[in-house]
Amino acid sequence: MTIPTNSLIIFIFSGMVFLLLGGFLGGEVARKRQHKVEIKEILQWLTAILGAGVGFSLAGIITSFK
User: Fold this and answer.
1) DSSP labels for 5-45?
2) Residue 35 — φ and ψ, nearest 5°?
3) Domain residue spans in the chain?
4) Residue 62 — φ and ψ, nearest 5°?
5) Are 47 and 54 in contact (CB under 8 A)?
6) Residues with Cβ < 8 Å from 64, sequence gap 6 or more?
7) Residue 21 and residue 19: Cα distance in Å, rounded?
8) Which of 11, 27, 45, 50 is most buried (most C-beta within 10 Å)?
9) pLDDT of residue 1
10) What distance in Å separates the CA atoms of residue 15 and residue 29, rounded to the nearest whole number?
11) pTM as predicted
């Protein structure tokens, strides 16, 4: 089964968007160091978003080899 190139591009670019959003939230963590409760919440979102970005990117890479 081959995946169309457009689907591959969508997987990779959506992964990159998630990674960029994670980088933005990482900047928010650095900016709001004083408020520990907010940092904990932002770090949870950061972990989820970075995980999604890595997952989408890996899905695009893995499907490109099949």
Assistant:
1) HHHHHHHHHHHHHHHHHHHHHHHHHHHTTT-HHHHHHHHHH
2) -95, 95
3) 8-64
4) -65, -45
5) no
6) 3, 8
7) 5
8) 11
9) 47
10) 21
11) 0.49
